[in-house]
UniProtKB/TrEMBL annotation, chains A, B:
Gene3D superfamilies the UniProt entry points to: Bira Bifunctional Protein, Domain 2
UniProt name for this protein: Aminoacyl-transfer RNA synthetases class-II family profile domain-containing protein
Originating organism: Tsukamurella pseudospumae
Amino acid sequence: MTRAATARVVDFTELYSRQQGFRASLFDAGLLIPTGVDGVYGHGAEFTELTSAIDALVAAAVREVHGGAATVLSFPPVMPREVLDRTDYIASFPQLAGAVSTYTGGDAEHRLLLAGRAAGHDWGGHFRASDVALVPSACHSVYPTLTGELPRDGAWIDVSGHCYRREPSIDPARMQAFRMREIVRVGSDRAAVAHRDTWAARAADLLAELDLRVQRAPATDPFFGRGGRMLAASQSADNLKTELLVPLYGDDMPGVAVASSNYHRDHFGVHFDITTVDGAPAHSACLGFGIERIALALLAAHGLDRRSWPNAVNAQL
Amino acid sequence: MTRAATARVVDFTELYSRQQGFRASLFDAGLLIPTGVDGVYGHGAEFTELTSAIDALVAAAVREVHGGAATVLSFPPVMPREVLDRTDYIASFPQLAGAVSTYTGGDAEHRLLLAGRAAGHDWGGHFRASDVALVPSACHSVYPTLTGELPRDGAWIDVSGHCYRREPSIDPARMQAFRMREIVRVGSDRAAVAHRDTWAARAADLLAELDLRVQRAPATDPFFGRGGRMLAASQSADNLKTELLVPLYGDDMPGVAVASSNYHRDHFGVHFDITTVDGAPAHSACLGFGIERIALALLAAHGLDRRSWPNAVNAQL
């Protein structure tokens, strides 16, 4: 979920000030708890309840539509690092990735580490890359489990988990660690596109029923570097990504993406050797909900105290 | 939560074989999903529901005992890396810690990374230590929020979150990424010790009501290296850690710790400048529940199909 392309001129100083103000009010209300690192926050009881309710609402919507046909999975915040390779995340979004490094030394090196630490040096260099990394998108954990031939109708997966993206920000809506719930479709190109289109519409309805003002907009991912510009241009030209934006900081500011749909063509099918019954690489699409972002959009729209929210909204959560 | 000291001779070959067999049956039943890394598993729908129910049961027990006096918090899987310093985790348990490394280079270095990767080299070395690390224990995120003077009665915190420990294992009960819910008490030494004792008893009751055969045993943490042996001996001599063990692999094998109580004396009070009203460093104690481990203990005790569990157990979950 990325910044939407926007034609109008944005007063960024004013935007940052509103973001900072919103974050301060969330801290004051005990909804979010500061940790000292931008984008890493504890959740107070009410925020935890709210995100659980949103997650349950999405889960219920998936059951309503797909029933038992959708496989429900959740994954831990870490995954094999090798998946960053196979998804090409390390090629396309290295700046957002988080790898897990660990200490593999013995007693002697540990004494050095502690001596350096006592002298005020960073001990991070004593840690080495491990075989696990942080999950950047909930659906990435799914594709490795689908390697092989799909059933005739393909697969639907309702997947949730914590994600990590390295983008420290004072904007409370841009967290480094956040929860995502995605409805993933893997199968023929036609099935993937249809899933993308119907779920983008359904997600917009679901958000509108929470009294959020939702706007659909074509979007691109923040591909890295010079080569990334071409990838983004191609993604945009082929209309592969759509975001559902909600105004968090006023109508004169860009909306915040609280959900997004992505059609990956056969990218994951090829990289994870997933084939349809006729032997072709599977296509995939997903609709991802940013759980904390929806919570923040609700708090921004209806106020920090849930007791004063419209009854129709609370009734759903 | 660590291996309990055990006097009897354990047939480790047999133990590993039972662990592997249990894990295989969990995979076959779709309760856990393999990822290719030992200790990192996806959760199927039924396992997800079971862990949620266990988490809710603990939450309800806390409300029943402490009502509004306990502050309910949850934290993301990452925290400031500096907390590993302040808790002394980097001194005592470097081998279990996970730090997050990220890519901070530009286009040119990224081309090198990709060229090396294409040639089959590990790109992990292109990542640098960031300012965040994985949370090793749910309660560690809490202490930084308490810096300063506590209220007269001290504080109770009900905290939950994902934890990470670097201990790859074929034992499904030893996950690298897992959920923990802890009831933390911070205040006078007397308050901390009383909390530890009453909650260890309450937790044993709660587990026994789930028809689990629970045994309390003194335990030590797996402190690192040669110096660690002294720390463990002191922890043991002062009876600071107690584990609640449940047999997962047969009565002839060591039980698995599904919960543990820890009395930290003024360790966190000193390191995070938390003081009681009379100006002394606060003492702390916690009772931590290993959510996945309780789920696995239930599956081991009552069978993989929840529909065949005792009604009295299902009624509580």
